[in-house]
Q: What sequence folds into this?
């Protein structure tokens, strides 16, 4: 065990068998000691959910090339808590990496994202953290370019650091590496999901609904994450977790009377 | 049907049988036409999670005093989507009320909260929304004061409006009404949850873990939600959903080169 190597925790929300997780481990492996703790199946759209109604299970299922692999019935955020309190206990985690997600986490998708929630959870306790997402939902997506880009960004983060209590939301266009225009530092695109709830019926005639939809971009700025991605840039968004609408505090003060 | 009455959607994260939901319906009933869509059981700590792996079910289980009650297997955020797309379809929702939660949603608890996620989801589409939480986790908590306070705040919100794309995070001290010091408009307290994962063993000798913990307040401001609550004020925090750490965009620009 080389104690001067950074301790890197890798997690995701697509589960321990996802191709994107393997890609991120590949990108991380050369930079430090890697420990992998991921959900035991898909947890897309789990946001910052935690598990309190059932107990958490965690199991080491593999140890390969010096990398320990654990899986849990919990959420991505639970993975961070289990890492700190059960698996790595008193060890200082130098970097949390989450992903590589199958699908974009741009605009308000950030708020639904389990991938980014794991990174944000780490930033609560000032652990530098990066979530990576590739704009390709396919389970068999090609992660070749994304792996190289993740490696490049991990190197920058370890060299320069990440601002305190901040995580990074990195979205990667679905393009071969030679088509990638570069990195843009962006802000969250204004928008919302326009959803449909597709009605189907079970064999007993009872209706049920599948949530589908598409992101509506209501932004017009060239500094937004959606603009960057449309123009084949890798979007790097610094993320904080103070949800206060500070600009509206004064106008509400009249309610204090 | 009186079409000039505001259409008020009530939801929560503690499920359709929670005492806090009944309290919020009581507070809302005099202000407009009320429709209730809530999860069919506890969904605490579900944050902004959505359901995509299983289909959503929704069932009307009661119609009482002109109020329609629906329950779903989904999350609090799913309740908002089901309201818009399945139950109320093309009708304009004038106000979303979520809660009254059994337990605080102050500081970073806001990010784990299903109660507040439902309100934030509504604010994505510019529907005015308020989440209410009482600082009492007990299923049998006394909601007498909280019901009066919710009624007062609903009245203010319908009269003055809520800023665009903003929701309100209202936390109420566990005190009788005469001990409540008033309303304070607050910002999110800096802090984090210091957790423990309590290990237990099943009859087969396999370990499992229960997530427990307490909020650590690292803030020293008298404008924070925790300060207000400690001093018996009702905390009203305006909430936005742009997670961009705008203050760190410039320092990261060097990564673009």
A:
């Amino acid at each position: 065990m080389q104690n001067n190597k950074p301790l890197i925790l890798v997690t995701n929300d697509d589960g321990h068998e996802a191709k994107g997780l393997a890609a991120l481990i590949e990108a991380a492996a050369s930079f430090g000691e890697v420990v992998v703790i991921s959900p035991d199946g898909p947890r897309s759209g789990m946001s910052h959910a935690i598990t309190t109604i059932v107990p958490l299970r965690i199991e080491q299922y593999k140890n390969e090339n010096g990398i320990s692999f654990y899986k849990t019935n919990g959420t991505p955020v639970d993975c961070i808590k289990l890492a700190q309190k059960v698996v790595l206990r008193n060890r200082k985690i130098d970097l949390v990496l989450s992903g590589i997600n199958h699908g974009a986490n741009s605009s308000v998708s950030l708020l639904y994202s389990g991938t980014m929630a794991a990174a944000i959870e780490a930033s609560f306790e000032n652990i530098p953290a990066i979530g990576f997402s590739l704009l390709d939902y396919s389970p068999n997506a090609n992660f070749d370019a994304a792996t190289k880009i993740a490696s490049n960004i991990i190197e920058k983060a370890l060299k320069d650091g990440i601002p305190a209590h901040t995580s990074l939301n990195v979205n990667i266009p679905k393009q071969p590496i030679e088509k990638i225009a570069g990195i843009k530092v962006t802000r969250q695109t204004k928008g919302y999901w326009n959803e449909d709830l597709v009605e189907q019926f079970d064999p007993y005639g009872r209706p049920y609904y599948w949530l589908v939809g598409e992101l509506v971009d209501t932004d017009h700025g060239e500094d937004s994450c959606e603009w960057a991605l449309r123009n084949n840039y890798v979007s790097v968004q610094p993320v904080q977790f103070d949800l206060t609408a500070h600009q509206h505090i004064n106008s509400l003060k009249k309610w204090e009377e």
Summary: The longest strand of chain A covers residues 191-201. The radius of gyration of chain A is 19 Å. Chain A touches chain B through 75 residues (CB under 8 Å).
